[in-house]
Amino acid sequence: MVVSRGFRDEDEVRPSNLVDIAAEVRRETERAWLVFDGEREVWLPKSQCERNPDKTFTMPEWLASEKELI
């Protein structure tokens, strides 16, 4: 008997689309950055984002959309 736990097969894994967002860090905690993109402040989880030296953040498109950054 095979039990499925909801995991996808390797063939079903879809790469996420990544986007770069220009933003200024206002605050930082162990787990997140509070950033300002010129219009709003939002918290970005460090587990989902990469902070780049050119003052941009790389993140999955779904997160940027959820945070209304795009």
Overall description:
By secondary structure, this protein is mainly beta. It has one domain. 9% of the residues lie in helices and 39% in strands. The strands form two sheets. The protein has a three-stranded antiparallel sheet with strand order 1-6-5. A three-stranded antiparallel sheet has the order 2-3-4, with no helix packed on it. A hairpin with a 4-residue loop joins strand 5 (50-51) and strand 6 (56-60). The protein is globular, with a radius of gyration of 16 Å. The N and C termini lie far apart (46 Å).
Question: What layout of secondary structure does this protein have?
Answer:
Blueprint: E1 18-22, E2 24-28, E3 32-36, E4 41-45, E5 50-51, E6 56-60, H1 61-66
Antiparallel strand pairs: 1-6, 2-3, 3-4, 5-6
Number of helices: 1
Q: In total, how many domains does the architecture comprise?
A: 1
* Adjacency order of strands in the biggest sheet: 1-6-5
User: What's the pLDDT, averaged over the residues?
Assistant: 85
* Largest sheet, strands/sense/barrel: 3 strands, antiparallel
SSE order, as H and E?
EEEEEEH
Question: How many angstroms separate the termini?
Answer: 46 Å
What is the 3D shape?
Answer: globular
How much β-strand is present in the residues? Answer: 35-45%
